[in-house]
Amino acid sequence: MAIAEAFELPGPVVAISSLGQGNVNDTYRVSLRRQDGQTDQVVLQCINTRVFAQPELVMANILRLAEHAQAHTGDLLAGRRWEVPRALAVRDQPGRCLLEVNGEVWRTITFVEGGCSCELLEDCRQAREFGRGLGTFHALISDLPVAELADTLEGFHITPGYLAQFERILRNTTVRLTPQAAHCIAFIRDRERLACVLEDAKAAGRLQLRPIHGDPKLNNVLFDVTSGEAIALVDLDTIKPGLVHYDIGDCLRSGCNRLGEETSDWRSVHFDLELCEAILEGYLGQAQGFMAAADYDYLFDAIRLISFELGLRFFTDHLGGDHYFKTNRPGHNLQRALVQFRLTESIENQEGAIRAIVERLRVAL
Q: Phi then psi for 39, rounded to 5 degrees?
């Protein structure tokens, strides 16, 4: 409670509870009592500095993004609600948003009232809103110069780098290679050539750097509990210069798996085309203003690559001793990898249908 009270809060703290299921930071909901007797809430987080080694730059990106988005909301939203979480200052330290306590780094951000997240999409209407949420986020910041954002996670969403890391970890692993682990290794070997597709397109000038969220999975989009509309994209630590294709692929990867990424029934995982079309329709309806012809050409590659990339990252972490992603049990990251690789396979098996959806929407919108 003392850590929460060290920030400029709109009232005294009355309760603190865990919030969300993040794989990196520790997150808490802080309930406050206002002078009128009503309750407010803010979000308190302990930043994982093993992952975010320069939290000051992380916060600088978040503040710059919020400033830029605030100046553009009126033109784009046409009366719809959209919120960008704001950082609260440390008490008696104007302009400072980070608090260091016993080697830990803490921050407090505003809570999006009336918003809820979900782990699985209920229907196509919600899927369309999910895509619209990411499209709104991208459209709001598409003209933010990437030079104004720090690259706080060098190598993040650079798939060839993850492949090289996998090779290094594999050579030195002491983890027992079970049949499932052997399956993962073979799966990676068969698809090594996929790793460079987006980076090669960027190097050739076909795709351009833009501001990206970095982690727009389903449970990072908040929906209005009354209207069902997407109203915010949270967990902003991974904002950085990048390819929007990594965001689009992550959005579809997380939304089109009806069993969710934590399922133990990995063999039944399937990429749902109906949800895919709804998500892309929502996204492109907002993003078409900045999407170039080449951006459409690489949408299928992005969808396939990001599920493969995340599976590669989960499996590498499993081999390396589970130091990056939080786990609940031995073999948890191996299970997650199997889910993503099965999803990749399902995407590959439906390549023609996915490309047809992209082309149909490109023409229709």
A: -105, 135
- Per-residue pLDDT at 179: 96
What is the DSSP code (8-state) at residue 187?
H
Residue 278's alpha-carbon distances to 36, 88, 130, 216, 220, in angstroms, are 43, 36, 9, 16, 18
User: Which residue ranges make up each domain of the chain?
Assistant: 4-113, 124-364
How confident is the model over 42-75, as pLDDT tens digits? 999 999 888 889 999 999 999 999 899 888 766 6
Contact 156, 240 (CB under 8 A): yes
The domain made up of 4-113 has a fold known as Phosphorylase Kinase; domain 1 (3.30.200)
The residue whose two tokens read 């110069």 is 145
Measure the CA–CA gap between 7 and 88, rounded to whole angstroms. 7
Give the whole-angstrom CA distance, residue 119 versus residue 21: 10
Count Cα neighbours of 355 within 13 Å in the Cβ-side half-sphere. 8
Percent residues over pLDDT 70 in the chain:
98
pLDDT at site 18: 87
Give the count of beta carbons closer than 10 Å to the beta carbon of residue 233: 25
Architecture of domain 124-364: Alpha-Beta Complex (3.90)
pLDDT at 158: 94
pTM attached to this predicted model: 0.92
d(CA 159, CA 306): 8
